[in-house]
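Archive entry: two folds, one per protein. Generate the first.
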Amino acid sequence: MLIGREPVIEKKTQFRIRINEAVYDEVTAYCEWAGVRYRDFFIEQACRYILTNDQEWESFKKKTQ
């Protein structure tokens, strides 16, 4: 399982997103399967995964530092 349970509450910033209904349904099903109570935790973990594994993004960040 790529996403574990939620940690202790951290400071969060709220924002609104729109998402394809089929993707939303699958995210919801995954969260139920994985025992993730909050979909925002899933979204945060997915974002962290992308941001740490996208080599082009890492290269861009190094160039702009």
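Generate the second and append.
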Amino acid sequence: MAAPPMTIVSEGRPLLSICVPAYKRGAFLPDLLDSILRNIAELPPELAGCGVEVVISDNASGDDTAERVAAYDDRLPITYVQQAENIGPDRNFLAVVEAAKGAFCWLMGSDDIVEPGGLTHVLRAAGSWDVAGFSVNYQRRSFDLEQADEVRPPVAYRQDVVIEGREDIYRAFVGHWGYLSGHVVRRDLWQEVCATGEQLSFLNAYVHILVMGRMIERVPRWGYLHAICVGWRGRNDSFVSGDHVDRMMVDVRGYREITEHLFGRNSATTHAVMNEVAGTHVLVHYRIAKVFYHSGASLRRAGVTLAREYWRYPAFWTKLLPWAVLPAPLLHGLWTGYQRTRHRLDPNFKIHPQARPKPEAAGS
């Protein structure tokens, strides 16, 4: 099944829908929409007629999202859907693709931005690759988007590539798939998977991973664009409500449930993915929980979960356990020192708020 060629535009159908599920992100949407406008203005002539639309599904935010979007009505082709009630993040992910018309859908977090040239790279791949979908490189930015961190590619590849084989694709990309804004999917294939209704049993914040996992069963070809196409706004995870242990549990449960369902509990693919998740996503949230002095009860709950879920994987012993045995005050001190040293060496480096001296100590 080949990817639709760019001539589909002559049929009145856009090549690409940028699909934005939104919830109480009115303050951030203008940054995203402005970045899309800049990218459209800079498209080369051969891509200018491909057709790009923006689809926003507002999950009953109750903020000024509708007003923010309306300000772009005369500048961007926007489809705005306002949910009557909060349907949860997963159903909103599904709803925004359902409302799209493009041959491909670029899933996009409402607080992220399209980096310069990102749209050009995505349109070229969408118009030429015969794939179920493809992932893109990204860079992490500061909360205000002004500072870009060192680029750390999310996968092992360092060039544009198309990977074949369901298990090879899943192992290579599933860790990256958790980041919503990094992926472009063939809409007809996505909808074909969703027609089964299976995804409604996996509303665990990662329903899109389940859908993409099924897509590569049907068309086992997935691409990767090494160019940086999206900017991720740091310190703004919508699934963090103050406790990174709870956020860690989202990853523990979501990746395990979906991967075991797709490949079986004791498969080699499941073991490989669980080991990777333990040493990356789970480690990050557990590390933050310890550095930021989460409660002893919360950390004990995390420790029990980590031991139960990952004791049989090397990442538990080499990465998680060392962090579990180190005292939280020591970790906080080391991290604070690192932040302040970075700032002394580079005044443009912004110190995390929890690493700054308390106001009463600032003049001492």
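Annotation attached to the second fold: Residues 244-328 form one domain. The longest helix spans residues 268-291.
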